[in-house]
Hints:
Layout: H1 2-21, E1 25-32, E2 48-51, E3 56-59, E4 65-71, E5 74-81, E6 85-86, E7 90-94, E8 125-131, E9 134-135, H2 147-151, H3 154-175, H4 178-200, H5 203-211
Parallel strand pairs: 1-8
Antiparallel strand pairs: 1-4, 2-3, 2-5, 5-7, 6-9
Amino acid sequence: MRCFSVGKTISSALMMLQLVGVGATDIQGSIQWNDLCPGIEDLRHHTRVVLDGGLRKAMVAHDGGFIFRDIDPGTYTIDVNAPDHIFPQLRVDVSSQPPPPAPTSPSSEAPDGEPLSPAPPPGPISEVQFQATYRKSYEMPKASFDLIGMFTNPMMLMMLFTGLMMFAMPMLKDSLDPELIKEVEEKQGRMFAAQNRIQEGGVAGLSSLLNMSDSPSAPPKQPTTPARKAGGKKRR
């Protein structure tokens, strides 16, 4: 009786394993070598093929192949996580329906009631193929000296303009009228004084700065003397 129960338990376990395996499919694919990734030597050792964002991971063989075993029916995404290359993301639909059986001719040796071509279990999906679309570069090229780029820099233009004004201002002053230079210096002095008073909080400086104009100052008025009357007192 004990031997019979052990055998029954083993047969039940085998039957459960068969039921679990029904509908499971192997997803098989490969990486096609191209100019961006010519061989397995260009892939780093920790390159992995990832199923559905980390549900399963598979290593890449020397010939570029990989396989995911016993995948349940459903829709999955497959990515290649490579540090130096970029691969497209692919979508795989695993169907629970087995492929249609191949037609066969009836045989006289087959007993009555036994199917001639039973439905085979779902086979592996071998249409998944990847190709690298871009190769990453982590080295920054050294910038060469560019004379035109240096003179188009705004800071460089400001420095050149300042240096030009330092050399050109003395020559410009020598060519101007001394009286005009003196008038400009006086206006600049009044303007600086008004700005200083504004910073100190004075209202008089603000009014003087607003009333300041570029027109020349009016000539001073001459004092007027009262006119004598025509008819004065006669001396006796």
